[in-house]
C-alpha cells in the first residue's frame, strides 16, 4: 500500500511539473507575441501629399529635407541616407562622412541607391514632391514641407510628427517651448518704428520676399515690420532693382546670397555695394544662406535664423 501511495505521489508531481512547464512555455510564447506586436506599432501620418503608415522607430532612414535632418539629429536620431550631392550646411557636415549613404541631390533622388538600402522611412519636402509616388513604392514616405503662410504652425506640426515616429515627443515639446520663449523675447525688443526687407541675390539679380513668402517668418514670426506689404508671395520672390530698395528705404536690408550655396562663390557683398544702397539709410544684414535657403524649418536652423535676425537688428 505504501508503495502504491508513493507511486501515485510521484505521478501527481510529474503531471504538475508538466503543466507548469506547459504554462511557462505558453506564457513565454504569449510574451514573445506581445513584444512582436509592440515592435510593429505604427504611426499614421497625414500630410499634404497623402496619408502614410509608418512603423515606429524605423531603421535605415532616408532624409532629403535638411530641415528634417536637422530636427532628427537634434533629437538624437541619425539618418542613414542623405542628399549629399547637394551642399550640406556646415552644422550638418558630419553627414558628409562615408558612414552615411549618398541618396542623390535635393532635386534628383538616386532611386537605385535608395531601393538597395531598403529604408524604413523616407522624409521629403517641396523639392522632392514630384517623386513622392515613386519613393512611396520603395518605402513609407512622409512629406514635411513648410507652409509659408502658417510657418510656426507648420514647423510645430512637422517637428512633432517626426518626434512621434521615433518616440521623442517629450523632447520635441521642450525644444519647441524653449524656442518660443526666445522668439517672444526677441519680439519684445523689436523696435516698432523700424522696417525690414528680405532679399535674395543670385546670378547678379535680386528678388524681394514679403509676408507669406518662404522667408516671410522674418516679419510674421520674428516681428520685423515689412517695408513693403504688397510683395506677392512666391517661392522665387519678386524681381526688384536697387532703385526699388532705395525707394522703400528699409531700416534693415536682409540679404541671402544663394550663389554661395549653389556654386560656392558668393557675390552679394559686391553686388549690394553700390551708390543707391549705400546712400540710403539702410543697415545690411547678411544671413547664412545654407541655413535660410537649404535647411529652414529645423529645430536648430529655426533657432539660428532667430539669432541672426536678432543680432542684425540689435548691432
Automatic annotation (TrEMBL):
Residues 60-315 form the Fe/B12 periplasmic-binding domain. The keyword Signal applies. Residues 23-51 are annotated as: Disordered. It is a lipid-anchor. InterPro entries: ABC_transptr_periplasmic_BD (IPR002491), Bact_iron-sidero_bind (IPR051313), FatB (IPR033870). It comes from the Bacteria. It is found in: Cell membrane. Residues 33-51 have a biased composition (Basic and acidic residues). Residues 1-17 form the signal peptide. Keywords: Coiled coil, Signal, Transport. The keyword Zinc does not apply. Residues 162-189 form a coiled coil. PANTHER family: IRON III DICITRATE-BINDING PERIPLASMIC PROTEIN, PETROBACTIN-BINDING PROTEIN YCLQ. Belongs to the bacterial solute-binding protein 8 family. This is ABC transporter. It comes from Salimicrobium humidisoli. The lineage of its organism: Bacteria, Bacillati, Bacillota, Bacilli, Bacillales.
